[in-house]
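Notebook B, p. 112. Complex prediction, attempt 2.
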Amino acid sequence: DAGVIQSPRHEVTEMGQEVTLRCKPISGHDYLFWYRQTMMRGLELLIYFNNNVPIDDSGMPEDRFSAKMPNASFSTLKIQPSEPRDSAVYFCASRGTGLETQYFGPGTRLLVL
Amino acid sequence: SQQGEEDPQALSIQEGENATMNCSYKTSINNLQWYRQNSGRGLVHLILIRSNEREKHSGRLRVTLDTSKKSSSLLITASRAADTASYFCATDGGSNYKLTFGKGTLLTVNP
């Protein structure tokens, strides 16, 4: 298995632009998690899905952030409009029902200028 | 809020020495997990210990859990330069689905 796939790996954009991050979970995994990692706040859970349905989005910082999972093999995290404080590494992770460990993608390093 | 807190924040040792990292958490758990993150990479699961277990081994890793003190430790024996990474503990807060991660311990193993 290729593992969790994220794209792009790096993104540099200007403040006010829309940013879309993409994730393909491991095939057969029915939980998908989006995290944000910064030096100041560490690794924060933003939202997670089960069977493509958002279960808990309490970590989404504000309305500028939105996430979707249109099917079992694809999810997006969108920031519109982006701000410099959104600069961070965004990770996607997946796990299967009955499994307790999460499998992380390589992350997307976002820089908003 | 971060439930797990690792200690120390950074640790530098020589190859061959043992490294011990500690984690404290605040609420009840079903299990506690340790993950490793190499620079510029995603997190990789190392080991899971359940709330009814006190100690667990996996290769050069030894994890202990004290639920009365809400703390865990990760011991890496005979460290290698390749063990250089950040190590995070993660707790499930009893949810079985969500994990809350600490801020990690940066381990540097000098050759």
